[in-house]
Amino acid sequence: MRTPRRDTAWFEALYRAHHGAVLRYAVRRIGPDEADDVVAEVFATAWRKLDAVGDPPLPWLYRTAHHHLLHTGRRLAQGARLQERLRAQPQADAPGPALRDPILDLLDRLSAEDAELLRLTAWEQLTPSEIAQVLGIKPGTVRVRLHRARQRAQAEFDASLSPASSKESS
Question: Nearest CA to 119 among 93, 149, 139, 95?
Answer without folding.
Answer: 149
